[in-house]
Amino acid sequence: MARGYERHHGHAGLSIYGKELVRRCGAHCELCDAQGTKLKIFEVPPFDSEPDVNHCIMICETCLDQIEHPKHMDRHHWRCLNNSMWSTVPAVKVTAVAMLKRLSRSESWATELLENRYMEPEEAEWLEEVEL
Whose CA is closest to 111, among 100, 121, 119? Predict the structure, then answer.
């Protein structure tokens, strides 16, 4: 199995958290707030030996595809991170800030958002371990 596959796909069997995650997100993508679209479970790295619902977020196929295939990224789609970077769900906040870090290499608006972010110490530690 390719090394990158495990990095982005985590554990098998995450579907056991599906109902709980859909309730939490209100059937909206937790990154871009898209509704009325198919949502997928995304496990935020790093992965423990057992799946953890606190490391999972529900995201639309557009967000998932762009996370997994950065060369196909639509930078304008990610302006939604202005909202999700303030999420009360640590996994959402960490993912949003990790994406902003990726975007800040070429987008000044992403750099500006990063300058205004606030993270709890545990979230900042987690962010240091995330590689998207």
Answer: 100
